[in-house]
Specification:
Elements lengths: L7 E9 L4 H11 L3 E10 L2 E9 L2 H18 L1 E7 L2 H9 L5 E8 L4 H13 L3 E7 L15 E8 L5 H15 L2 E6 L2 H4 L3 E4 L10 H9 L2 H12 L5 H10 L7 H7 L8 H10 L3 E9 H11 L3 E10 L2 E7 L5 H14 L7 E5 L5 H6 L2 E5 L3 H6 L2 E3 L7 H4 L14
Parallel strand pairs: 9-10, 9-13, 10-11, 13-14, 14-15
Antiparallel strand pairs: 1-3, 1-4, 2-3, 5-7, 5-8, 6-7, 11-12
Helix pairs in contact: 1-2, 4-5, 7-8, 8-9
Length: about 400
């Protein structure tokens, strides 16, 4: 094969993967003192695709390729060689200054149509896909099994032509094809998130606690109607809070304990909290709900901070009033910033997760804001959302892989 004087050779090796294959190939390159300029390897269903760009002396290149062909035959794999010009290489090197982004696609399952649509959106924006990897474990054929989920991550390079248009198209993809997504700049902050703040009601738990208390007080329908208006952003949160708490007047304090002990925990919370604590994240609950229930979850999951609303109790009965300032949307954003300062965490390293209109300020303030099974207004204003699986879907947006599972079957 004719190799140009610049001695740059790209080789592509494909075939059935086996232990020691990469060592065998690079052993041949080492024999001829080759310099590795780039290398990448992927394994899909035990099929290897290995690419190596190397530089070697022109007097050695022919012998090196001949030995590689013999080694490939011995290993029962295919190898192809491509000469790379100096100009091609310099153009490739010049691309490394371009922005890199991570597009994460997440759902109960991923279809060709979903991936095709996402790929078209990337291409339309002039972005190039450098790599694709699967974050979730191997998919069982039985889709009825519990907790099935599928997640892939695109590493893309370039600058979107129209970031707003791209976001809108990704939102349409999410809505129309039942898939979740996250589009993040791939920088040091993405890899070093340190503080995560959660809403509580309808996020960490599958209910609004005030609605549960209202049922016990016999005013369920009245309170639920006010709650729904507040979550949709139709009425001021503080006003709705005062109205709802007033309806709880006379409720016995023992009911709080009963409700706390029967809180319906959201799918994925146990796994999520285990991983976050194991990897050293600081965790906060910033809730428009009640401190009593936040502290119950704090004890259960070793949560670092809880800020919520305090119910006034006199002689074992709720008075229909609260104590202190109301934790509304504005206050949640302020608390996120305050905790970040206390923990000496850059705001870009923070994460916020919530479902209601009163969560939008903290979702917008955090480095990564995630709407979780959220109201339409919240989804429309959030840059990332999870609607198809449980709360542990947050882990995939942080780049965790199922292959990090420990011997106990958890992360």
């Amino acid at each position: 094969m004719d190799i140009s004087p610049n001695e740059l050779i790209l080789m592509r090796i494909t075939g059935e993967d086996r232990p020691g294959l990469t060592a065998s190939v690079t052993g041949v390159l080492a024999k001829y003192d080759a310099t590795i300029l780039d290398i990448g390897q992927a394994d899909i269903h035990n099929t290897l695709s290995l690419g190596i760009l190397c530089r070697t002396h022109e007097k050695k290149s022919g012998f090196m390729m001949k030995d590689l062909l013999f080694k490939a035959s011995e290993l029962n794999v295919s190898v192809r060689f491509y000469p790379i010009s100096k100009e091609e290489y310099e153009r490739w090197v010049g691309m490394q200054g371009k922005n890199r982004y991570i597009l994460t696609l997440l759902g109960r399952k991923l279809t060709a149509r979903q991936i095709n649509t996402a790929s078209h959106i990337i291409a339309e924006q002039g972005l190039n896909i450098d790599a694709i990897k699967r974050l979730t474990g191997r998919m069982p054929l039985d889709e009825k099994k519990a907790n099935i989920r599928s997640c892939i991550e695109f590493s893309v390079r370039g600058t979107p032509r129209d970031r707003i248009e791209m976001q809108e198209k990704l939102m349409s993809l999410s809505r129309d094809l039942e898939i979740d997504f996250s589009f993040q700049l791939d920088n040091m902050y993405r890899r070093m998130r340190r503080l995560i703040c959660f809403d509580m009601d309808s996020t960490l738990i599958k209910t609004e606690v005030i609605d549960e208390l209202a049922v016990k007080a016999g005013v369920g329908d009245q309170v639920k109607a006010i709650t729904e208006k507040a979550m949709r952003g139709e009425i001021d949160f503080n006003e709705s809070f005062i109205q709802r708490v007033a309806l709880l007047k006379g409720l016995d304090e023992s009911v709080l304990k009963e409700v706390a002990e029967n809180l319906p925990i959201t799918e994925g919370v146990d796994r999520l909290m285990y991983v976050l604590k194991k990897y050293g994240y600081k965790i906060a609950i910033l809730s428009g709900g009640f401190t009593y229930f936040g502290e119950y979850l704090q004890s259960k999951y070793d949560i670092d901070y809880v800020y919520a609303n305090e119910l006034e109790i006199v002689d074992g009965k709720l008075t229909g009033k609260h104590v202190g300032d109301i934790v509304d949307g504005k206050r949640k954003a302020e608390l996120l910033q305050l905790i970040a300062q206390v923990e000496r965490v850059d705001i870009a390293q923070t994460i916020a997760v919530g479902d209601g209109a009163n969560d939008l300020p903290m979702l917008g303030t955090a480095g990564l804001g995630i709407a979780f099974h959220a109201k339409p207004k919240v989804v429309a204003n959030a840059k990332q959302s999870i609607n198809t699986i449980g709360l542990d879907g947050v882990l995939y947006f942080l780049g965790f892989k199922d292959s990090y599972l420990d011997e106990q079957g958890r992360f």
